[in-house]
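#help-structures

NK: newbie question. if I give both the sequence and a SMILES, will the prediction place the ligand too? trying with NAP
OV: yes, paste both and it writes out the complex. here, I ran yours:
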Amino acid sequence: MSLPDQMLGIEITNPGGPEVLRMATVAVPQVAPGEVLVQVAAAGVNRPDCLQRAGLYAPPPTASPLPGLEIAGVVVAVGEGTPRWQVGDRVVALTHGGGYAEFCAAHGTHCLPWPLGWSPAAAAGLPETCFTVEHNLFGRAQLTAHDTVLIHGGSSGIGATAIQLAGACGARVLTTVGSEEKRDFCLSLGADLAINYRTQDWFEAVMAATDKRGVTVILDMVAGPYVDKNLRALAPDGRYAMIAFLLGAKVEVNFGHVLSKRLTLTGSTLRPQSSAQKAAIARAVEAHIWPLIAAGAYRTPVFKTFPLAEAALAHTLMEASAHMGKIVLLT
Ligand SMILES: NC(=O)c1ccc[n+]([C@@H]2O[C@H](COP(=O)([O-])OP(=O)(O)OC[C@H]3O[C@@H](n4cnc5c(N)ncnc54)[C@H](OP(=O)(O)O)[C@@H]3O)[C@@H](O)[C@H]2O)c1
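OV: that's the protein plus ligand as structure tokens.
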């Protein structure tokens, strides 16, 4: 196919609310060595896109200014030194940005095969959550079948992935949610216990469920007042992986728990990591999660899709936190 010079994409016109997202005609990205150009079929929506839109999460200087961190689509051009992919291959990709568009460039080593039989929306919802959970829960926090893990925000895109993967590895899975509907959703994904933090004290519920021993791993996106409670809810030698600070990054905590229980505190953000680090995570994701997908033991729960032109509505829905699982844009 001959490639156009121009395409439709969603621009952030100014930092602000969802209304600052506008469809615009922009240049089709050039393919650099090591990259592929993908004709986008679907693009996942993630909280970090909302933060970028609001001016709270600047894209790295080398990244596309358009939002969009994950896509599913068809390779339409291949840069030098990209041996794995050919024109016509169907891939999912963790992008450096620019997913909310008709075409998007991605590093070849950050692409994985589009799972057979998966819809565009389900496929596009894989990379960001799989890379994040693989790296934090299994890489940094070293989750194994012997662990009991507490996953905050269980109904989020990240939470839905973490529940399924932790369950598949044999760990006992506790999670927090903001409604009864979300509780049922998390149980349907395999959580052993889902605690509605609006009607129950989640700390008390966690301690009761573990005979006061606490959990051995926590994946936390909430932070703020949760941090001190998380330190108290961890068992000796527990590991605490932080991936976001929805309720704030600056808090007063008692670090005595870290010493007395020999806790490990860790965390990361995916986007600023080097291309080589993301390639290593991609290899881990393919080795660990793609077999689960092939065996039917992992799915992307797609809550709602929107046409690309309605990206603002997708962000409004995400920020209302009424969704369960993934929100996806279709091009
Ligand atoms: N570090 C990384 O590499 C990385 C990568 C991707 C995403 N993230 C972060 O991970 C989080 C989830 O991302 P996502 O794309 O999956 O977003 P999402 O689907 O919108 O999830 C956000 C979740 O946070 C929960 N939440 C919001 N306010 C809360 C509160 N006050 N107390 C407890 N829970 C609360 C919501 O659940 P309830 O309605 O049940 O409260 C919601 O499910 C975001 O904060 C995002 O920035 C980090």
